Amino acid sequence: MYIVVPAEILGIILPLLLRVAFLVLAERKVMAFVQRRKGPDVVGSFGLLQPLADGLKLILKEPISPSSANFSLFRMAPVATFMLSLVARAVVPFDYGMVLSDPNIGLLYLFAISSLGVYGIIIAGWSSN
32, 42, 67, 93: least buried by Cβ within 10 Å? Predict the structure, then answer.
């Protein structure tokens, strides 16, 4: 059984999150070009700090929840969906020999965990009732 140290996990997850942030920046720049308007180039040079500004804005937003919502389930639903998407990446190899977990049934595991992500959306809708 292969035991992963936290440095290896951070070495995989942090570049993944940075890649997603800058892909969002690239998408916003392309959309600005298509719509013939200025893109996200206000923060930092060439807008490179825009994903960080977006993340800070998201963190500092006032949390809004329905008055009749089950507060704990309503807050747990997005966390569950996000965590399941990260757990599903555990069996996807990033390079030769660079994988977090190597079970024999990796594809079945990937499909099973990916299908559980829908429950976060269902719980969020049900808890706001």
Answer: 67
CA-to-CA dists, residue 35 to 21, 26, 30, angstroms: 21, 14, 9
Which token pair is 69? 């919502």
Measured N-to-C along each axis, helices 118-127 and 71-88 cross at an angle, to the nearest 10 degrees, of: 170
d(CA 16, CA 23) in angstroms, rounded, equals 11
Identify whether the C-beta of residue 80 lies closer than 8 Å to the C-beta of residue 120.
yes
List alpha helices for the chain, DSSP H.
Answer: 6-34, 50-60, 71-88, 106-116, 118-127
Half-sphere exposure in the Cβ direction for 125 (13 Å, CA): 5
Interacting residues of 66 by C-beta distance below 8 A, sequence separation 6+: 74, 128
Whole-model pTM?
0.58
pLDDT in tens, 1-49: 565 667 777 887 788 888 888 888 888 888 888 888 776 766 777 777 7
